Amino acid sequence: MPRVVALFRHPVKGFTPEARDELVVQPDGRIAGDRVLAFRFADATTPEDRDGLDSWPKSKGLALESFPTLAELRLTYDDTARRVRIMRGDALLAQAGLDEDGRRELSEAVTAFVMESAEAKRLRRPGRLPIVLVGDGERSRFQDRARGYVSVHSTASVAALGAALEQEIDDRRFRSNIVIDGVEAWDELDWTGDVRIGDVRFTPAGPIVRCLATHANPDTGVRDARVLTTLTSRIGQAEPTLGRLLLLPGVSGDVDDRSGRGGVIRVGDEVVFD
């Protein structure tokens, strides 16, 4: 029986994931505490509003795609206290709340880290400094897509990719919310009917076309795996794809139609196909 083997959320867009024992899927289809904050560039606007739906392109702020060294940082978020903690190895870079002083402290710590990295030149480009921590820490506003999606991939697909690359590949590279086992490689790309994970029912949406962020080692930030070209040239995909988007039934792109059932997903939950 297919089961959930790992769960992740990403409190700050473009930064490292938090492993979780359970995730709450909200009625709008988004994960509670996922992408609720972002470090935006100075010349970036507030999150785009597309027909009443929030989204936030990676180009508006710091993200692993362009700043892979960010993978060295370990970031955790306390939902109750609204506090962010940023570690680099055993060193605490910053720990602060979301008031004005706390946001400044967190932004300055991240800026200092990037300015000492190989990506410093990118951050010095016109309009990028100073970076600002935005978001209320509660609303999941900083998604790549306007609709409320949950992402999933299988350990078998990652293992097949690793075999093609002839190296071990970590699931965290793909920044999925849900990782499952007990299915064959690439099976998730062929799902057609609804899928139930724990007590949450989803409708499969599109496959996930991957970006350069997957090349970065999730511990060091070094781009040490040619994921995109391996998916297309060695595995034979038309586009570099790994994983699937899931949508709550009844949640659409309309402002007045974004209320599905939601629920809680836990590590060990069964995955059942209709």
TL;DR?
With about 270 residues, the protein is of the alpha+beta class.
What does this structure look like?
- With 274 residues, the chain is an alpha+beta fold.
- It has two domains: 34-134, no CATH class; 150-273, no CATH class.
- It has helices at 100-115, 120-123, 155-165, 227-234, and strands at residues 3-9, 18-20, 22-25, 38-40, 48-50, 53-55, 73-78, 83-88, 91-97, 132-134, 150-154, 178-181, 195-197, 200-209, 241-247, 263-266, 271-273.
- Strands 2-1-12-11-15-14-13-17 form an eight-stranded mixed sheet. The chain has a three-stranded antiparallel sheet with strand order 7-8-9, with helices on one face. Strands 3-16 form a two-stranded antiparallel sheet.
- The model is unreliable at 49-53 and 253-257 (pLDDT under 50).
Number of helices: 4
For the sheet with most strands, the description reads: 8 strands, mixed
Pick out the low-confidence regions: 49-53, 253-257
Please state how the strands of the largest beta sheet are arranged side by side. 2-1-12-11-15-14-13-17
Shape call: globular
Kindly state the mean pLDDT as a whole number?
90
SS strand fraction: 25-35%
Q: How many strands?
A: 17
- The class by helix and strand makeup works out as alpha+beta
- Helix-residue proportion: 10-25%
Number of domains: 2
Could you give the order of the helices and strands? EEEEEEEEEHHEEHEEEHEEE
SSE topology sketch:
Elements: E1 3-9, E2 18-20, E3 22-25, E4 38-40, E5 48-50, E6 53-55, E7 73-78, E8 83-88, E9 91-97, H1 100-115, H2 120-123, E10 132-134, E11 150-154, H3 155-165, E12 178-181, E13 195-197, E14 200-209, H4 227-234, E15 241-247, E16 263-266, E17 271-273
Parallel strand pairs: 11-12
Antiparallel strand pairs: 1-2, 1-12, 3-16, 4-10, 5-6, 7-8, 8-9, 11-15, 13-14, 13-17, 14-15
